[in-house]
Amino acid sequence: MAQNRQAGGRSRYGRRGLGLVSESEIARAAEVIRAGGLVAFPTETVYGLGANALNTTAVERIYEAKGRPPASPLIVHVAGVELARQLATKWSAVAERLVRRFWPGPLTLVLGRHPRIPDRVTAGLPTVGLRMPAHPVALALIRAAGVPIAAPSANRFTALSPTTAEHVRAALGGSVDMVLDDGPTNVGIESTVLSIADPSHPLLLRPGMVTQADIEAVIGPVQLQAVPLGAHPSPGMHARHYSPRTPLLLIRRGDALPAGRGTIAQLPSDPREYAARLYAVLHDLDREGLDYIAIEAPPDTPEWAGILDRLRRAAKK
Prior knowledge:
The chain is α/β, with parallel strands linked by helices. The chain contains ten helices and 14 strands.
């Protein structure tokens, strides 16, 4: 018998101050990063699993903790545009327009990488994904550590992304040296990823809450990147990803549901509120021992593209 669940909640995007995290915790976490350790920390999107992006041994620990394949590159997080410029081989006028509009925020830019970025970070590719997060704890950690921080989502590979510190601890346990707990994240799904390695030919590698239309309003037409063979130019391009342990069914209104104990998860009608709640709702339902979780597919429109991408990959068998 399917049950109906209603999820609510509002964003706190744009909050200032360290919230639940103390300055002493930031200082200790920065020491862990500099010493080659792993720190899970909040961003506005999801919790990240961070290591010194310039330390190959530390970055290798990320892959081991997540069970992440070597063909999946990491995003490097910075606390300012100047550091981002230093990590790219070329900083174009297109990059400058984008960061002026969207940074700090949930947009990752893929550019030619500087040789100081290890191959392990980029899956051997000549490009690197750079992002300046819009979360005071993340920015404080990067500044205190004094190094760029490589950080995918703080979960096991292909599993549900974490939007709370509790999700991190349940997924990774003792493989993380320190967790900075600042409560739930507010964007809720991973960043949009845009390649401008060739500024004249921008490619959308992963949709997110910064939409294709948002980007095109700043730099003009953007094409969608097909999934390549070999190393992926962006995280989140595997066919199955962001998945709960419980089978997820993406349904249309009126679809017949399978037999067994399942639930229909109902989420907000606003895409930003929906994204902010999606993973938290799936984490909660995943603990209930259900036979399936069903979610009605949202509209196939630009503002829902990032959410629909996550749901399709999560439902992939």
